[in-house]
Amino acid sequence: SNPLILFHQWLIELTAKDSEDDMDFQENDLTQYNDSLITYWYELAQRIYSLFYEQQSEVRAFYEPFLPSIRRALISKIPPPYGFTEVEEEDGFRSHRVVFNTKFGDLYSSAKDALVLLTNLDLNDSVRALEESMTKTQSSGFNRLDLVNKTAWAFGAIVSALSEQSNKLFVTNFIGFYIS
To answer: 74, 41 in Cβ contact below 8 A?
Structure first.
């Protein structure tokens, strides 16, 4: 098989790797790789999108079969631009504070922009990929907050690429999913 195809299949698997799937693989190891992988997928999505209307593009033809897997990997790894932390004050009062993750905020922007470009290339597959993430979240009983968080951030990315009419229907379905 073509080494470039094998290489991209490996990159997709590495991007989508769940730290819970392999206890030998430390979360810090995954975070280190995800930074570079998310940036790579964003740059690749830009290149493919710029060649979208060139029907004879070899680059487009080569990467098109990978796009569904790339969408799903990005949805599973989209980092939040901010998080919450619990803080205990000197008087013992506990509160939650918003912590802006500059590094993760930048990565979120890259992942979001890549998802927007990939959604513009194939809206239906992007919606299916998000629905799959929603199903995975539901099957976990909403107990894995990382899945809930990533699905919500991916929704925010994909919805920005939809038309106003599609946006209304999509948002309604998404909100209904979390309410039910």
So the answer is: yes
Which DSSP letter does residue 112 get?
H
User: E strand or H helix at 100, and its extent?
Assistant: strand 94-100
Strand 94-100 versus strand 82-88 pairing type: antiparallel
CA distance 134 to 142: 10
Q: Quick: pLDDT tens for 25-65.
A: 444 444 566 778 999 999 999 999 988 777 778 888 889 89
Q: Rounded to whole angstroms, how far apart are CA atoms 127 and 123? A: 6
CA atoms within 13 A on the CB side of 2: 6
Instruction: Name the helix (H) or strand (E) containing 83.
Output: strand 82-88
Statement: residue 124 has pLDDT above 50: yes
Other C-beta atoms closer than 10 Å to the C-beta of 155 total 22
- The whole-model pTM stands at 0.78
The single residue listed with the structure tokens 């998404």 is 174
The candidate with the shortest Cα–Cα distance to 74, out of 66, 64, 82, is 66
DSSP symbol at 88: E
Cβ atoms < 10 Å from Cβ of 174: 19
What is the Cα–Cα distance from 48 to 57, expressed in whole angstroms? 9
Residue 35 CA from chain centroid, whole number: 12
Contacts of residues 132-136 at CB distance under 8 Å and 24 or more positions apart, as own/partner, are 132/72, 133/72, 133/75, 133/76, 134/174, 134/177
